Fold this sequence. Notes:
Blueprint: H1 2-28, H2 35-60, H3 65-93, H4 97-110, H5 117-125
Helix pairs in contact: 1-4, 2-5
Amino acid sequence: MLVPFLIMFREGVEAALIVGIIASYLRQTGRTHLMKAVWLGIALATFMCLVLAIFLQATTGDFPQQEQELFAAVIALIAVVVLTCMVFWMKKAGRSIKSALHSQVEAAVQSNDKWGLTLVGMAFLQWPAKG
Length: 131
């Protein structure tokens, strides 16, 4: 249980960093009314994680032992690939992530998106869009 906990903790810290940068920029620019969209994105991401966890628990719990181990190995390999990609992306984007997020938030605010759906997406995905 320690390894999955550490992975989830690390991902949670990264997500909090990105959402924190978005939230602080909205506050610095006097756009706190758009925080509702950010909170909606966070709530949607949390809900989707819970739904996926419940689905995986319900569908994989009846696997025979050997299939459970194979499933766990496949999921672990997928996690390794995703985390490796994140590490390389963070190495490349780490120095400019704050300014990139600020410009993307600014572009989202300047668009005709009156409900802040772009900000919802940024908080939901917690991954700055290329742009």
